[in-house]
Amino acid sequence: MVNLEWYRTFKTIYKTGTLTGAAEELYISQPGVSLHLSSLENYTGYKLFERRGRRMIPTERGKALYNFIIEPVIRLEEAEKSFQRSTEKHTPTISIGMCFETFQTTLEPYIASFPFNIIIKFGEYPEMVDSLEKGILDLIITPQAINSNDIDYEPFSYETIVLVGGNNTDEKTLNSLIKKDNPKEIEKWLKEQKWYGTTGDMEHLRRFWKQNLDKHPDFRPNYIVPNLNSIIRCLSSGTGLAVIPDFLCRKEIEENQLKLLWEGKNKVVNTLNFGTRRKTIYADEIESIKKIFREEMGRPLS
Fold first, then answer.
1. What is the reported pTM?
2. What mean pLDDT, rounded, does the chain reach?
């Protein structure tokens, strides 16, 4: 049985000409708009729009369906306005892109407190920027400010990539080698240790190694775990090494569950940015989310 909301969404896409425009007018996410359209196309068995860039061009079948349903849908909307109990605004849905670890460390405890709906998406930073441009995401948290005419970046904090170890790690030899500024011996000691890493991601390790030892690491971690927070839990009260952003493990270091072994002779620092589209109807909602990040990250840029 067809869902009447599919027809409302179809009519709005037809009217606005874009998925983003329909999402803004209906106060739902763009993925929700796409889902309604694909469901209606599957139900009818016909392609209703041709996608040309961001524009949605109705097919002949789409034009025929629009002409057939437009008056009934308008009458239903008028009936809804006349008989609804109130004229309350639809609850907005805000879609946010960030890495999994950032979500767990900052926003996760606050999710239930927001007076609007939230969709969290994890992925690679270039993919997030593309989704932001297309209207699939409303806000991204990223260390990469990729140029775009449609996106504004706001630096709000920073992270330092550091070498950490479990609190049972004997770091005396490393400290001695660092004081002597002996890169070859430092590298030798490091490669003798057990290492933790995440699936398919050695970017932090590569940058730290290149910045401080002037070469690329020629080894793979001994233990590959799902994410950086898993590394922190595995290292706590144990031994082993990892290179991770410091803001993820500040609490564990303060509570002596982890040891901060080396910030590096040449620090690797990432500026963290809010990325938003220049035109948005969700400015107030986005600002309330930004406030949480500023408070949790605790490192305002001077």
1. 0.65
2. 88
